[in-house]
Amino acid sequence: MISRQDVEHVARLSRLALDEAELERMRAQLSGILAYIDTLRALDTAGVEPTSHAVPMVNVMRDDENRPCLPQDEALANAPERSGEYFRVPKIIED
Amino acid sequence: MQTIHELTAAFTKGESSPVAVAEEYFARIAALDATVGAYLTVTRDEALAAARASEGRYRAKQPRGPLDGAPIALKDVFATQGVRTTCGSKILERFIPPYDATMVARLKAAGAVLLGKTNMDEFAMGSSTEHSAFQLTRNPWDLARVPGGSSGGSAAAVAGGLAAGSFGTDTGGSVRQPAAFCGVVGFKPTYGRISRYGLIAFASSLDHVAPFALDIHDTALLLGATAGHDPLDATSVSEPVPDYVAALSGQVKGLRVGVPDEYFGEGLDPEIDRAVRAGIDTLRDLGAAVERVSLPTTKYGVATYYIVAPAEASSNLARYDGVKYGLRVQGKDLIDMVSRTRAAGFGAEVKRRIMLGTYALSTGYHEAYYGQAQKVRTLVRRDFEKAFARVDVLAAPTTPSVAFKHGEKADPLAMYMNDVYTIPASMTGLPAVSVPCGFNGAGLPIGLQLIGRPLDEPTLLRAAHAYEQATPWHTKRPRLG
Questions:
Q1: B154 catalytically annotated
Q2: Do residues B195 and B241 make contact, with C-beta atoms less than 8 angstroms apart?
Q3: pLDDT tens digits for B189-231?
Q4: Measured between beta carbons, which residues in chain B are less than 8 angstroms from residue A60?
Q5: Mean pLDDT of all residues in chain A?
Q6: Is the ipTM of this complex over 0.90?
Q7: What percent of chain B stands above pLDDT 70?
Q8: Beta-carbon neighbour count of residue B291 at 10 Å?
Q9: Alpha-carbon span B269 to B237, nearest angstrom
């Protein structure tokens, strides 16, 4: 079970502005899914190493040298709002 | 409907041409895709330019290889330079990538003619393609039914003769399951075998690039053209790529085939049980040694996956913030703008997964959910390691049911359970293929799944090819218009 308060908290963490109906539907559906997922808790995993990737992974490094990169105009081309050579966002700092 | 190897053999002999064939595919798409709904974007001009260039190479007797001129479709999850890439989502409805995914660049370099971008469940989350923000895709074998998902458009395109081959992505079964539902081949190679640079990320420890084809020979060609190390993808494996076509010897004498008990239990459609067991009998008749094996952690696979995949998705999809690309909905401040943008841009299933993943990673729950899931993932891997100490490949059903009707699985959990047999090979990164192995009484396709050892694509292709050549299933086509 997941409480309505938990759902609102997770929606805030997820940056999702859900309306009243969505929050209630989410509570019911997540409760059902979590009840199923909770079957995992019954499994004894004491002493088992976690697997994060299917195959062994190591850091991949390259030489620290300048290379051609995406031109600024192309990088900005999909931006919903731009200002000159910057991405434009709503004002963050109070006057 | 011809295979890629038949098409390009005819190009080489001068019996047909890449431009004429591309025109035929666009004519079929124009006539039939309003019904099937496989494509989100058709790239006619670019494709015909590529076909003309290919035709010039054949005329000069210098084709680039076995994919030169082959008409291929791409799931709308791969970045294509200058061509809209939506990932099935409103949030990327107008996104034009500034570069090609590595696998797209490799297909272009091989001379492939890219027909367009195919429909999918939004952000590859789903098993029916019904979670696309844009349109329904219909199964060419029965238009009232789903093509499977999330790569449903790419599967339906090949099954319906709207592309000779295609690519999708498989995170929990998103290529093998639609391949089974649509009666085509779907091959998920080993994790890291095909570069994911330029693939829009869903769950990074699980995402695989994977082809659809009409037969195993074409599958080997599509794998061979796209596999191999990519310095732009830190998770891509560096082992050299073997000659996959050379692996198709037709011989399975002495091959050890394991049949996992846990894949034939409660919930499996009896008609699928019969067809898959008949397929295993065929392998035995061809000289393979069949034995029972056990993968006891199988029943925990779906629960484990639905922690790991949403957790990774919640992180990956944090990038859709209304700033760098995609939709923006105005708000009273930055956080309000981001939250309104995501609420308007994501569909219900994507929101559910983001919420589930965020919850599973949140303070107080991280260890109980994500930590436990990672440990169970180790147990799943050990199951396979034990089995592969005794056998060379595993044979099992791809799905517990045949293609279901649109709207039939409205409950999210019921939809998730359809991935029960495909998820274990996803979580372990093992190569796995679905090959057509018959039809149920209603004429709907059934898939036989073969799973192999890490990077042992050649053995898997050899077994699937021998099976296919001994059976008629891969030659059956749906009647469409």
A1: no
A2: no
A3: 999 999 999 999 999 999 999 999 999 999 999 999 999 999 9
A4: 234
A5: 92
A6: yes
A7: 100
A8: 11
A9: 37
Closest residue on chain B to A16 (Cα) = B339
Residue with tokens 């081309």, as numbered in its chain: A77
Give the start-to-end residue ranges of the domains of chain A.
4-42
Partners of B258 in the β-ladder: B291, B394
pLDDT at A95: 66
Whether B454 has a pLDDT exceeding 80, the answer reads yes
Handedness of CA B435, B439, B440, B445 (dihedral sign): positive
CA distances from B327 to A77, B246, B349 (A): 13, 47, 18
Please determine, looking at this structure, whether the domain spanning A4-42 carries the CATH number 1.10.20: yes
Measured CA to CA in angstroms, residue B451 lies from A38, A59, B54, B180, B225 at distances of: 28, 28, 36, 14, 21
CATH topology of domain B4-256: Amidase signature (AS) enzymes (3.90.1300)
| Per-residue confidence (pLDDT) for residue A45, from 0 to 100 | 95
B174 is an active site residue: yes
Closest B-chain CA to A76: B324
Least confident of A38-42, B341-345, B426-430: A38-42
- Alpha carbon B215 to its chain's center: 15
What tokens appear for B95 in the block? Answer: 């996104």
Joined tokens for residue B356: 């589930």
Tell me which of B75, B117, B188, B409 is the catalytic residue.
B75
Question: Mind giving me the DSSP string for B361-385?
Answer: HSTTTHIIIIIHHHHHHHHHHHHHH
R_g of chain B, CA atoms, integer Å:
21
Specify the amino acid at residue B231. P
pLDDT of res. B414: 87
Region B95-118: mean pLDDT is 98
- Which of B205, B300, B381 has its CB closest to that of A43? B300
- Mark which residues 25-84 of A lie under 8 Å from B by CB: 26, 29-30, 32-34, 36-37, 39-41, 43, 45, 48-55, 57, 59-60, 62, 70, 74-75, 77-81
User: For residue B282, what are its two tokens?
Assistant: 């065929």
- Cβ contact B87:B325 at 8 Å: no
Residues B36-56 have pLDDT tens digits of: 999 999 999 999 999 999 999
Inspect the interface and report whether the beta carbons of B98 and A75 lie closer than 8 Å. yes
At how many degrees (to 10) do helices A20-37 and A4-13 cross?
100
- Find the mean pLDDT for residues B13-19: 97
**pTM for this model (two decimals):** 0.97
Query: B171 phi and psi, to 5 degrees?
Result: -110, -40
Q: Count of alpha carbons within 13 Å of B293, Cβ hemisphere only?
A: 25
Q: Is B48 helix (H, G, I), strand (E, B) or coil?
A: helix
Tell me the per-residue pLDDT of B129-162, one tens digit each, with 9 for 90 and over. Answer: 999 999 999 999 999 999 999 999 999 999 999 9
